[in-house]
Amino acid sequence: MAQAVYNFPRGFLWGSATSSHQVEGGNTNNWTAWEEVPGHIIDRSKSGVACDWWGGRWREDLDRAAEGGQNAHRLSVEWSRIQPAPDRWSEVALDRYLEIFRGLKERGLQPMVTLHHFTNPLWLEERGGWENPVAIQAFEKFTQKVVETFKDYVTTWCTINEPNVYAVEGYVEGVFPPGKHDIQTALRVLANLVRGHSAAYHIIHNLQPEAQVGTAINYRSILPAAGWSPLDRMVANMQSSIYNRVFSGALVDGVMRTPLGNTRLPEARGTQDFIGLNYYTRDYISFDLRYASALFGHRYFRKDAELSKTKYIANEPEGFYEAIRWANSFNLPIIITENGVEDSDDAMRPSYLAQHIHQVWRAINFNFPITGYYHWSLMDNFEWERGWTQRFGLWEVDPETQARRKRPSAAFYGEICQENGLSADMVARYAPKVFARLFPN
Ligand code: GAL
Question: Phi and psi dihedrals of 92, rounded to 5?
């Protein structure tokens, strides 16, 4: 057997990612309101107590992360908790987060904090959420409070998680609140998110010059089903640039380019210090007149691709490499802010993990400046409109009893983090299916 190790650079950040609404429990925000309406969450579940982090279980779960050799953690702070009304800050919530940040430090977990991870306070949602430009100043004010309060503990900030997903799911697909189907509104929301991000970027740097500020973009690899077909290539390019590029492109030169026209947003120019990359899967696309509402693109997974439990994710590690190459085109440090797969049986996760981490190694060896990898997720948690039907955790959580169970992938990831590398021996033990591919003779 080959005895090779894919080693990572010294100081590489190994972590996992979570978000407030998905793990804390006991929230009151636009999502909890959305969850009340039958039909919104596919298994009719609610976030409820989630993983009970607000009840104190963050301690035991972060112990699990630290014991598993992780040295970093990405989490979000819940706007609706910290600012329950436009003119009120909750000292209780701020203190609780301070306790969590101290807890991270004690455990040797370097924090990365997301300011907006899909949820809005109800008082903002009632005024139209991000459709209304009042969201921009409100977010700026919230950011100021958060950074002033936590700046002794946090220097890496992710302003907005997956603005592209937020706009598409909430305003085109209609499966996130507010459940609209209107491309123009989606683009207006995206422009306001660019403005909100820019305002946050500047205020963070005013308060904390050494801060590292970015976003987390969900990059979806979209390939033409038939490479020779100009029509397939056209829809692939169009969808890929709309989905992957509209928001991030604006942060480069201050112009948001969309099929419906360009918007100048000069305040956004140069407002990222790193590229946060979330990658899960790759689609193939063909031109098809029956899919007018999807801009004539019919998207599907490769026929022989290995699919996750609920067929939500195809295991496409090469798509990850493409995503990293795309991220590298910004000439900034890259952080893998999310990557993972839903798999309650842990049947596919070990090989997914091995193959995707191998791609990170490959990219680093081509001198792509990747500084960290955050697995989604540490624990099973509330998966938005998919409720509890999908399990992304290294650790299994029973939301009824709050019992935790360690999946083999948690042990595998633990060894990777501790070794700061992926070894042939680990792959032979945890992901033998892909051994020959990763360590060919
Ligand atoms: C991302 C999102 C996470 C998590 C993950 C898995 O789009 O940022 O919150 O839900 O997908 O579905």
Answer: -60, -45
Residue 158 belongs to what domain range?
5-438
Pocket test for ligand 1, best of 114, 117, 166, 384 (most atoms within 8 A of CB): 384
| 100 Cα to the center of ligand 1, angstroms | 22
Residue 222 is part of a domain; what is its CATH number? 3.20.20.80
Q: Classify 24 as helix, strand or coil.
A: coil
In the predicted structure, residue 174 carries a pLDDT above the cut 90: yes
Furthest CA-CA distance within the chain: 65
pLDDT at residue 1 greater than cutoff 80: no
- Considering its fold, how many domains does the chain have in total? 1
State the angle between helix axes of 91-106 and 134-150 in degrees (0 to 180), rounded to the nearest 10. Answer: 50
What is the Å distance from ligand 1's center to 229 Cα?
Answer: 32
Provide the residue type at 188 as one letter.
R
| Token duo for residue 301 | 């997974």
Using DSSP's 3-state secondary structure scheme, residue 417 falls into helix
User: What is the band of 368 on the pLDDT scale with cuts at 50, 70, 90?
Assistant: very high
pTM tops 0.85 = yes
**Cα 200 to middle of ligand 1, angstroms:** 22
Beta carbons within 8 Å of 230's beta carbon, 6+ residues apart: none
Which residues sit opposite 141 in a β-bridge? none
Q: Is there an atom of ligand 1 within 6 Å of 161 CB?
A: yes
CB atoms within 10 A of CB 259: 11
Instruction: Give residue 293's pLDDT.
Output: 82
Helix axes 91-106, 58-67, angle to 10 degrees: 20
Q: Assess whether the C-beta atom of 423 lies below 6 angstroms from ligand 1.
A: no
Predicted confidence (pLDDT) at residue 402 exceeds the cutoff of 80: yes
